What we know:
Blueprint: H1 2-18, H2 22-45, E1 49-55, E2 59-61, E3 65-74, E4 86-92, E5 98-105, E6 110-116, E7 124-131, E8 144-151, E9 169-174, E10 179-180, E11 185-192, E12 200-206, E13 211-215, E14 222-227, E15 235-241, E16 246-250, E17 254-255, E18 259-265, E19 270-277, E20 287-293, E21 296-303, E22 309-315, E23 322-329, E24 335-343, E25 350-355, E26 359-361, E27 365-373, E28 382-391, H3 402-407, H4 428-439, H5 448-453, E29 469-475, E30 486-490, E31 498-502, E32 508-512, E33 519-526, E34 535-538, H6 561-582, E35 601-604, H7 614-621, E36 625-630, E37 633-640, E38 645-646, E39 652-655, E40 658-659, H8 663-667, E41 674-686, E42 689-699, E43 714-719, H9 735-738, E44 748-756, E45 762-768, E46 774-784, E47 789-799
Parallel strand pairs: 2-8, 10-17, 26-47, 39-42
Antiparallel strand pairs: 1-3, 3-6, 4-5, 4-7, 7-8, 9-11, 11-14, 12-13, 12-15, 15-16, 18-19, 19-22, 20-21, 20-23, 23-24, 25-27, 27-45, 28-44, 28-46, 29-32, 29-34, 30-31, 30-33, 33-43, 35-41, 36-37, 37-38, 39-40, 41-42, 46-47
Amino acid sequence: MKFRSRAVNLLIxxxxxxxxxxxxxxxxxxxxxTLLKKFDAYxxxxxxxxxxxxxxxxxxxxxxxxxxxxYLVNGATHTLNDVSKxxxxxxxxxxxxxxxxxxxxxxxxxxxxxxxxxxxxxxxxYTIRGYTSWMKNFSPNFFFHQGVSIVNTxxxxxxxxxxxxxxxxxxxxxxxxxLVGGLMSKVAFTWxxxxxxxxxxxxxxxxxxxxxxxxxxDSTGMGSFLLKPIFDEEYSAIVEDEKGxxxxxxxxxxxxxxxxxxxxxxxxxxxxxRIQSNSSTVTTQPIFLVIHSRNMxxxxxxxxxxxxxxxxxxxxxxxxxxxxxITLFNYNMEPLCERLLFQVPDKLMSFEIQTxxxxxxxxxxxxxxxxxxNAGKAPVSGNLSVAVYRVDSIQxxxxxxxxxxxxxxxxxxxxxxxxxxxxxxxxxxxxxxxxNVMLTNGWRRFKWDTIVxxxxxxxxxxxxxxxxxxxxxxxxxxxxxxxxxxxxLSSPGLNVQVYGSISNNLGNIKFEMKDFSGPRRIxxxxxITMDSTTRIKILSxxxxxxxxxxxxxxxxxYTLRNDLLERSLAMQVQDIFYQxxxxxxxxxxxxTTAFYGKPDATxxxxxxxxxxxxxxxxREYVPGVLVRKRRDGFHFINLDVVNKGVFDTDPFIMLDxxxxxxxxxxxxxxxxxxxxxEVVLRRYYHGVLSLPGIVSFTTYNGDLSGFQLDPRSLVxxxxxxxxxxxxxxxxxxxxxxxxxxMPDQRNLLFWAPLVITDKIGKQHLEFYTSDLTGDxxxxxxxxxxxxxxxxxxxxxxxxxxxx
Length: 803
């Protein structure tokens, strides 16, 4: 009778679907179309960016320099991205406190720089994180993160002991998201425990202490098992080591009614997506299956479950490479289940790297020939970065992982480190590992409820498409946002640049800077003669949100003490003898033209008789500017050559690029300190500013020459984009240079952040060994214009051969 009842119910369900009104089918398809349109609107309004950082090494001493290169890509296509022109790098300690910060100029998707590691940094584990301003609109989990170790040998080397190990941490992840009573589910898990060398096994027991499933973690602490839970029973997960020590963990909540989603490869090369449900609406309402990768839809379809079970076959060819997200929706566009899948990408860039010899003497030329090719082994031109450093008991052969990072780790909150060639040849064990990674990682670049609601977020940070943006806030005396206040930002100097901003309803102001590099003193002020009660605060451009992550325990073996001191001594010797060369910066091509371009008139005051009073200078030599003294003080009246008249308000007056709103102060300034005077006799529009003529005074050094700024102005030191330092490597081209008594204790032999292979994928490099013998590691990383990325390595040795 039970079998007959099921058959009757199935027949009724099929008849209902066959005779469904055409209008209902159209309405159901409209639901899917609406969901896709909303997703597409989200994709367009919130494009994603990714950054990758190639670091020259992974272990540093204070007093050394960290060299790095940024790669910026479109988060959807993984091709180079030239939208953001600024990238941010921070060195963060285990408590998420930044110890070093810098801003890097980006061009064509690339940027590079360096950081000197001062003696104020304490020995320990640190994280390098990189991002753009646009990326700050999203979770910090998707910033670039890489762990490094920094050792301070200028302080007593107290070898830090690792923190006491946790007893253990087990996390369980039902495939699709839920455990549903009566439905078989795969459950993935991660087991974290710092006790090395121990083996563990686990079991799932019910309230009667019966074992209903067992599991064993692999070497990374991950694994999976099958479980068919009963709704009204209670379960526990037990982990036991080889000594019989047991820890109990609660199971995820079991729901009475719901859906279970699973996915797996089939023999025919398809992806099978199996959907199960015990919901009461399963036979009457459709469900929608959406597969997308990096915000681009691969497949979207509508289905019915007349029997409560359905298997959908998806051809692998239509799945995008990398991580895809499978989401199951109900008729109300509510997400029911989610699952990640990984398809091995074919955008691998490979390198053939050859050194002229396997062994070299000290102070000898090393030749490096690099050939780059794509996955099909066809030559491809690429933009590469190359690091060559000594391998010892402190510094290992840290592997580059740009390919792994862009296609895998950058889209996941946390996963074990991978060797650089992990994705090159995928074995069955690797496939199982990757599937466990997919099952144990949530992927939440966005929230479905926001997308379904169709409400667009107000994004706080805009991409820096033309240069660094300085952000601030202006408030009234009552500490409320000051709206509609015109504010000026400038920096004293010979390069006259002024930036303007009008505060919005939140009091926010922003200034898009041009050629703003190096340490600068900036002055921010409103027109103080019109607004003297507001207060301005400049905001930090660095993100104040941090990824929740495990702190890597840091420990140094006492046997490394002598090696550390030896490397520290070599570093100090190098710094003493080559300090001037190591501090060289590359001159940047900065446009020194004032923001107003060519003025209508320029006066070099040394060409004229020098009067001791500014008023006489203007009256005698500057016919385009009239000076009048009224009851409230001096006023300038600029001619308007365009409209053949005069402006009815004072012109925009500046001294060394700083706006001066009180003409009396400039009239009281010593004219003997002024080198040049420029005048613009027309209305000039500059961003949000409309200037009724310009009168610009420039002193000899561009440093205001003692002029006292209004105390209500905000004056502060601000670090612009980093000046790029040149990596110094000596040359030993003849015997005299090789026999020089100048010591050469370089641990990092070579760093080149901008190596371009030609159209047949080739590049030839040369550099010289130092006085340090040992094994050396060459690491090459790079990208091609089509988004191919990869890394390659080679080793060679340096020996002290007898003459």
